[in-house]
Amino acid sequence: MVSHNQRRPAGRGGALTLAAALAGSVVLLTAPAAHADTVDVDYQCKTPIGDKSAVSPIDIKSVASGGSYKLTMSFEKGVSSSPVELGKGAMHPSALIKLGGAESGTVSVSGPANDKAIPA
Question: Which residues of the chain have pLDDT under 50?
Answer without folding.
Answer: 1-33
